Amino acid sequence: MLVELCEEAVERLTIMNHPDGDCPLCLYPLFPEDEGSKQMPFMKLMSCFHCFHCECIIRWWNWLHAQKDADSESGDASHTRRGSTAEQGNSGSADESLGNCPVCRKIFHASDIEHVLDLVGTQSPQPDSGLIQGEEEDPLLQSDSENIRRERFESILKTQEEKGGLVQPKKNISVVPGMYLPPPTPASSSPNKEEEAGQSQEQGEEEPKEAESETNSSSSANRRGRGRGRGRGRGHNPNRRKQTLQDPRKPMRQWVQRAREGDN
Amino acid sequence: MTSSSAPSRKALSKIATNRLQKELVEWQMNPPTGFKHKVTDNLQRWVIEVIGAPGTLYANDTYQLQVDFPEHYPMESPQVIFLHPAPLHPHIYSNGHICLDILYDSWSPAMTVSSICISILSMLSSSTEKQRPPDNDRYVKNCKNGRSPKETRWWFHDDKV
Ligand SMILES: [Zn+2]
Ligand SMILES: [Zn+2]
């Protein structure tokens, strides 16, 4: 029963996350159907599988952190209230390596979009070269302070990674709904080869889509395996319950309700 | 987020304009049930008619929402208020300000005018009494000079409605 539910959930989520859809931020198609439209690179957040144009999610990321910086620098009374209500989901204000998905609010890590930041960095070395395309007038992404901030951030991230300081919750114990979680096989066990092959085939069901979006956005394919199938919905900050319920576009709601039915 | 996002008359950015044009087209093709967009040539301010849902306290009542978009929409939330007369509701002040978290701290750029409208209608529909918030008079007095609700320090302590 649970497996069926999970399979259905995977199916629904897959449909919802289909890259044929629109980018939730600009509302334009991720994959333009008419040849005339320019294809913009897009990416998928591995914590929730929501897809965005790279430049759209980065704009959100930068906005989020610019707000955070402004908040912490000003210490303005009009901002302090947010600590008590909404801010937890965004940050833990000192933590620059977290963001939240604009669609489901699930927390993602800097490492989830880092490859896209790289992409942007290599494509527009000069501040005025127009980020990816047509965004010349976006001061937020182009400003010196933002570039400095990004560099600083990346170096911090690197340090954190080197020291093993990045907390990546649940990755190691994640179960992809409807899929079999392979037991950690000892490296030496050659008799298990066939079985392993079978498993990876099974897992492969969901691979192509990801590979597709990954290659579209970047080359850092090694991130794919790690993040895949981190539990959906887990990790939602309970403090945000009310807020998330009020987002009519939010897929979690369906999932929760179905799960409840199934538990009866 | 708030102090800089008062409904200044700053023009919409190109990104905001593109996004709003897209929203408008989608609204016209598929408007949320119970809402009518009053057509104007002003992309930055939408006036939307709300009809109370059948079977609720507000059935057949008609209200008007005014939605003003900031320069950096959708990164910043729009300012959403009810035009006079605002519905009697425990979370709606007589000056039209709405205590609804998604309009302020819980805004996400993936939300749209359409999804805001649905949230507001659902807030109306779940109300069990046509009443002003208990602190209405105090709040409205403090809001003189046309202050934006986005400058208010909102506390969303009520989970029920
Ligand atoms: Zn986009
Ligand atoms: Zn998401």
Explain how this protein is built.
Chain B: Its EC number is 2.3.2.23. By secondary structure, chain A is mainly alpha-helical. Chain A has two domains: 2-122, no CATH class; 142-263, no CATH class. In chain A, 48% of the residues lie in helices and 5% in strands. In chain A, strand 1 (42-44) and strand 2 form a beta hairpin. In chain A, helix 2 packs across helix 5. The model of chain A is unreliable at 77-94, 121-137, 168-182 and 188-264 (pLDDT under 50). Chain B is of the alpha+beta class and 161 residues long. Chain B has a single domain (14-144), classed as Ubiquitin Conjugating Enzyme (Roll). Chain B is 22% helix and 14% strand. In chain B, strand 1 (35-38) and strand 2 (45-51) form a beta hairpin. Residues 1-7 of chain B have low confidence and may be disordered. The interface between A and B is medium-sized, with 34 and 35 residues. One zinc ion is lined by residues 23, 25-26, 28, 52-53, 56 of chain A.
